[in-house]
Write a structure and sequence with these properties.
7 helices; disordered N terminus; 201 residues; alpha/beta; 2 domains; Trna Endonuclease, Chain: A, domain 1
């Protein structure tokens, strides 16, 4: 899965918005303080309101955004729905690195269906990442299985935020390709570690 650019506001726009908010803060604080004092509140209460009230909208917006952000303990498949393809691939790479294995992210073109190369020879693992809204088909399994030898990988895996079709599962079983999707994402790090760790005979 390679690499569509995510649309986001330019840094200059975001910085401009932040500057605008901070320029308005003193004006709002003065208005609040004068209004509170005029309504009969003491100096201390007026100053306290001048500090708190202008910051309240930003605090509430941040609180609402945090409530909408899935936590680490929530359903991992649901949490990954908001990611783009590139973000999902980066997420899988971070999990692979946390398992203690080296990770290579392949080039945008000519990757032969392999997004990540994990581990060391002769136990290297080829991973294809699929973030999509429907079950992953047999084509993804076929791509990573055929592309693995091009990257000198002995093992293969397909990782998705969704599930796999019966045809994909059958083909993966025939080729020894590991499938990780949906609720199994919570065990991705453990699964990668098991695959790339040399077996002691």
């Amino acid at each position: 899965m390679k690499r569509a650019q995510c649309a986001s506001p330019p840094v200059s726009v975001r910085r401009s918005n932040v500057r605008t908010v901070w320029k308005a803060y003193p004006f709002v604080a003065v208005v609040v303080a004068l209004g509170a004092y005029a309504s009969g509140l003491g100096v201390h209460w007026s100053l306290a309101l001048a500090v708190v009230v202008p910051a309240l909208p930003a605090f509430l917006v941040g609180l609402l955004r945090g409530a909408r952000t899935p936590g680490a303990h929530e359903d991992p498949a649901t949490a990954k729905q908001a990611m783009s393809g590139v973000e999902f691939e980066d997420h899988v790479a971070r999990i692979a690195r946390s398992s203690g294995a080296p990770v290579i992210m392949t080039a945008v073109t000519g990757d032969f269906g392999v997004d990540l190369i994990v581990g060391r020879r002769p136990n290297r693992l080829a991973i294809q990442c699929k973030r999509q809204s429907r079950p992953v088909g047999a084509g993804a399994v076929q791509e990573v299985v055929s592309g693995a030898p091009m990257h000198d990988c002995a093992h293969t895996m397909v990782v998705t935020n969704h599930d796999f079709t019966p045809a994909a599962r059958k083909l993966a079983e025939q080729h020894g390709c590991v499938l990780v999707g949906g609720a199994d994402l919570t065990r991705l790090g453990t699964t990668i570690r098991r695959v790339v760790t040399p077996r002691v005979s």
